[in-house]
Amino acid sequence: MEHVASKDMVKNAVGEEYDELAIPPYTELLNMDDDLRARAVAAICEVYDPEIPVNIYELGLIYKVSGKLIEEGADKGLVDLYVEMTLTSPACPVAQEMPMMVQSALFPLDGVRHVDVDIVWDPTWDPSMMAETAKLQLNMFT
């Protein structure tokens, strides 16, 4: 994935707490302004897999967060969010609850009208999808 923003641009957009090592290598954040992108990532980082002491964003379980700006009507200016995520295993005991946990984290954000979360299995998750911080927390070096 090619990065188009410099480190300084990213730091200006998301603040001083930006940590490049906390960004999963394959997560796509699309069609959102910098403020909503930063707030969406922060909200998703509050969601944890109950069996793993790392948030689902750094685990690399979030494949895509995409925004669609509402351009007319009473909701003009609001954004609908679409999330594609996966689980570490199809047998994950919280498979039914995880999409609702992500939706509940994103829906309260200012400017968000609606949130759809889909579980996808392609590509299959593996530890290489984790951010470096997650690998360090779990003592996994892939």
Mean pLDDT: 88
Principal-axes shape call: globular
Following the backbone from N to C, one meets helices and strands in this order, namely HEHEEHEH
Task: State the helical fraction.
Answer: 10-25%
Main sheet: strands, sense, barrel: 4 strands, mixed
Number of domains: 1
Low-confidence stretches at least 5 residues in length (pLDDT < 50)? 1-5
Order of strands, main sheet, comes to 1-2-3-4
The helix/strand class is alpha/beta
Q: Count of helices?
A: 4
CATH topology: GMP Synthetase, Chain A, domain 3
Radius of gyration: 15 Å
CATH class: Alpha Beta
CATH architecture: 2-Layer Sandwich
Strand content: 15-25%
Count of distinct strands: 4
Question: Could you state the oligomeric state of the chains shown?
Answer: single chain
The CATH homologous superfamily is termed: Fe-S cluster assembly (FSCA)
Distance between the termini: 19 Å
Walkthrough of the structure:
- This protein has 142 residues and is α/β, with parallel strands linked by helices.
- The chain has a single domain, classed as 2-Layer Sandwich (GMP Synthetase, Chain A, domain 3).
- It is 24% helix and 18% strand.
- It is built from four helices and four strands.
- The protein has helices at residues 7-14, 34-44, 98-106, 132-137; strands spanning 28-30, 62-69, 79-85, 112-119.
- It has a four-stranded mixed sheet, with helices on one face.
- Helix 3 links the parallel strand 3 and strand 4.
- The longest helix has 11 residues, at 34-44.
- The radius of gyration is 15 Å and the shape is globular.
- The two termini are 19 Å apart.
- 24% of the residues are buried.
